[in-house]
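Feature request disguised as a bug report, sorry. It would help if multi-protein outputs had a clear separator. Right now it looks like this:
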Amino acid sequence: MTILKFLFHYYGLENGPFRKITEFGYEKAEEIQNQISKGWNSKRPENYIKLRENLSKREVN
């Protein structure tokens, strides 16, 4: 197995770097999640944003 030394994340200048969905606030995060219609992200449970919000709070503590 090969272990990478570096991991890069490329993004467009108009979008900026990766952000946590919970940084947008609950209502905006739900709106964003509801717009995702393709890929495995579209199959998240209905309470996903609440779960993410709780996990984000744990990271701070």
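(second protein starts here, but nothing in the output says so)
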Amino acid sequence: MTEEKKVVGLLTEIKTLLSQNKRVMNVDDLVAYTGLSKSKIYKLTSLRLIPMGENAHVRQKFFDKEAIDAWLLGKPDLSDEFLEQKFNEQLLKRKRV
């Protein structure tokens, strides 16, 4: 590995560590912080199973680091089966209305 590649790798690692010190995170920050995939995060947001900002004037999703930490420590069910069940429940509720 060349010196240049080592430096780039170290800078990338530093950037990742610094982004985890943010209080407010976007989806990309949350992916890096939690290790969850973007698709799983979008599923969780659409089902409202993850704590997120409620500003109706902002289209992008934002997440409070402290709320995410508390949510993660609460051991949420993140299995695909659980998420699919919740999604199907929402579909049934929408059909009834």
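Even a blank line would do. Unrelated, but nice: The helical segments are 3-19, 27-34, 38-46, 65-73, 80-96.
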